[in-house]
Design brief:
This protein is of the alpha/beta class. The chain has 17 helices and twelve strands. The strands form five sheets. A three-stranded parallel sheet has the order 1-2-3. It has a three-stranded antiparallel sheet with strand order 4-5-8. 38% of the residues are buried.
């Protein structure tokens, strides 16, 4: 294992792919974690494999158990269904301690009585991704059976071979080699918290390897910030007598300033984007292209196509950049291009959240046609309940700017009253009859049709910008159009009187 000429061989595995996503409940599901989960899910679905969810919750000082539900909700919103789990490491402690005992018995680990601060900087990152800063490597006398401080409760550390290198192959970054002299004797079990047997808790390194062995994980797909953990885990696999899985480290996600994505760049929680009104499929499409390519310039890839085309060969070594404007573009593309039947449940959910939904709309032609009319102008789902509110509710305000611009002609009250009467008498309620009625009134009055079109639009939806007027009229229906025109008349007159 420590021989510089003998790399760890790529394991010979059964054809069935088994991958896992293993978040720690120390925060909400963030964009980087969601992208890692997505890549694992796509790979499993592409290969007909198994996607496992594991909660790595053994760090009692940092874990927040209430966040587990938030992580699960985020995965469900993204549509990343898991086949097994969620498994909780906090319920699997006996297996980690048994593995540590096996390593002690084999001479591959030792009891370390050094105080934790002696290894400060070396162990700080052992429960997950490590920093890129080169650490000071400390070898203590405990590894030679000479306890440095027998009064201390001992931790269990891995006995890293002296000299030589540890090699592994990465499916994205290629062959990697690390000098064993740069790998500290990393902790497997922390010092016991109490004198009770079994109170020592495992570190990330031990827990991940033991679980990946037991769960028969074939591929470990995770962020590139974990690549420095892989030599340690490769050593652990070898010491436990098991061939390591195939490792694939995916590039990091950076902010627009090319630094690690963080809160200073804006929202990083998946839940925040859900609340803003992004469509989950648009978010999946956007995330998939942060560090992966289908091999051509295609960007709009529905989930079924992502599954069909995904492979580790398409994962880039170059970090992705999170571009909020690009994400919004994807969302607009999905709002405009999805089959209307696929979009309606999301719009219904938005209207339900805003208290605008009516049960009689469900499955009806009117709802589908109205959403289809509105969606070319939408950016996020809340647009259906904000600027498009007047299509779903009779309670809406008139924009002050629109009133000032389009309701200033003194002839409008009389003309709109005539229009209301003419529309009420139409034998057929359709686009062309509505159009002809308005233009006939304008022509008779000697005014431009645009004057009536703009004023009518404000009366019907409260805004100066909306879908085409006569399509809007058809969507609203005769009764609502006529009622809204007549309701606007005293408001227009009052505004003129004040002016």
């Amino acid at each position: 294992m420590s021989d510089a000429t003998s790399p760890i061989s790529t394991p010979s595995r059964a054809p069935h792919v088994r991958v896992r996503f293993a978040p720690s409940p120390t925060g909400y599901l963030h964009v980087g974690g969601a992208r890692t989960a997505l890549f694992n899910w796509l790979f499993a679905r592409n290969c007909g494999g198994t996607f496992i969810l594991r909660i790595e919750d053994t760090d009692v000082e940092r874990n927040r158990p209430e966040l587990v539900d938030g992580i699960l909700d985020g995965l469900r919103w993204l549509g990343l269904d898991w086949d097994e789990g969620p498994f909780h490491q906090s319920e699997r402690l006996a297996g980690y301690r048994a593995a540590a005992d096996k390593l002690l018995a084999a001479g591959a680990a030792f009891l370390c009585y050094c105080p934790p601060e002696k290894y400060a900087g070396g162990d700080a990152a052992e429960d997950g991704a490590e920093s890129e800063t080169r650490r000071r490597i400390t070898r203590c006398s405990c590894r030679d059976g000479r306890p440095s401080d027998p009064a201390q409760k001992p931790a269990v550390r891995f006995l890293v071979p002296l000299g030589g290198t540890t090699r592994f192959d990465d499916a994205v970054f290629g062959p990697r080699e690390v000098s064993n002299d740069e790998i500290e004797d990393f902790v497997l079990l922390r010092s016991p918290r109490t004198d009770e047997p079994g109170s020592a808790l495992p570190t990330y390194q031990l827990g991940a390897v033991v679980d990946d062995i037991e769960m028969k994980i074939s591929h470990v797909i995770r962020g590139a910030d974990h690549i420095s953990n892989t030599p340690k885990q490769a050593l652990l696999y070898h010491a436990l007598g098991v061939a390591p899985p195939i490792f694939a480290h995916v590039p990091l996600i950076l902010g627009p300033d090319r630094t690690r994505l963080s809160k200073r760049h804006g929202a990083t929680s998946v839940g925040s984007y859900r609340e803003e009104g992004f469509l989950p499929e648009a978010f999946r499409n956007f995330l998939a292209l942060l560090g992966w390519s289908a091999g051509d310039d295609t960007e709009f890839l529905r989930t079924s196509e992502l599954v069909a085309r995904f492979s580790l060969a398409g994962v880039s070594r170059t970090n992705g950049v999170f571009d909020r404007a690009k994400l919004e573009w994807f969302n607009q593309q999905y709002l405009q291009k999805l089959p209307i039947a696929d979009l309606l449940p999301a719009v219904q959910g938005e209207l339900e959240r805003s208290g605008l939904w009516r049960a009689e709309w469900a499955g009806g032609e009117w709802f589908a046609k109205t959403v289809d009319l509105l969606r070319p102008r939408t950016r996020l789902l809340p647009d259906f309940s904000t600027w498009a509110r007047a299509f779903f509710s009779d309670e809406f305000d008139y924009e002050e700017a629109a009133r000032a611009k389009f309701w200033k002609d003194e002839r409008l009250p009389e003309l709109l009253a005539q229009l209301a009467d003419a529309l009420a008498a139409l034998p057929e309620w359709a686009h062309d009859p509505c159009d002809h009625s308005l233009r006939a009134i304008a022509e008779t009055a000697g005014v431009k049709a645009g004057l009536l079109i703009n004023a009518t639009r404000v009366a019907l939806v409260g805004q100066g910008v909306a879908p085409p007027l006569f399509d809007t009229m058809v969507a609203l229906g005769r009764e609502r159009v006529v009622e809204r025109l007549r309701r606007a008349l005293p408001v227009i007159a009052a505004g003129r009187a004040i002016g």
